[in-house]
């Protein structure tokens, strides 16, 4: 396997990882921002006020998006296995 092939594999892997992680991370970041703004405006400093909704939102996104996540991972795995002969020999 040449260094170019390794770089291409890593590029594809990082692209898939970013695509899969983006919805969860964006939702958590936007919800955290909104809740922090709400806490600042109302002067509430309760830590569970931000943690519980954020955890619930991430869990809900993971549950709702699981078919898409799994389909995307399966397609990437099929791509890797179909090109396996290029990487081994």
Q: How much helical structure, as a percent, in the residues?
A: over 70%
The overall strand count is: 0
Q: Which strand-content bin applies to the residues?
A: under 5%
Largest sheet: none
Order of helices and strands: HHH
Residue windows where pLDDT falls under 50 for at least 5 positions: none
How would you sum up this structure, described in words?
The protein is mostly helical. It has one domain (20-88). Helix content is 90%, strand content 0%. It is built from three helices and no strands. It has helices at residues 3-42, 48-82, 84-88. The protein is elongated.
Which secondary structure elements does this structure contain, and how are they paired or packed?
Blueprint: H1 3-42, H2 48-82, H3 84-88
Brief account:
This protein is mostly helical and 89 residues long. It has helices spanning 3-42, 48-82, 84-88.
Characteristic terms for this protein:
single chain, mainly alpha, 89 residues, 90% helix
């Amino acid at each position: 396997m040449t260094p170019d092939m390794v770089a291409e594999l890593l590029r594809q892997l990082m692209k898939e990882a970013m695509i899969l992680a983006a919805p969860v991370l964006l939702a958590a970041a936007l919800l955290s921002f909104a809740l922090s703004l709400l806490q600042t405006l109302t002067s509430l400093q309760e830590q569970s006020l931000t943690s519980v909704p954020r955890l619930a939102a991430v869990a809900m996104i993971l549950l709702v998006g699981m078919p898409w996540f799994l389909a995307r991972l399966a397609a990437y795995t099929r791509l890797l296995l179909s090109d396996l002969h290029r990487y081994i020999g």
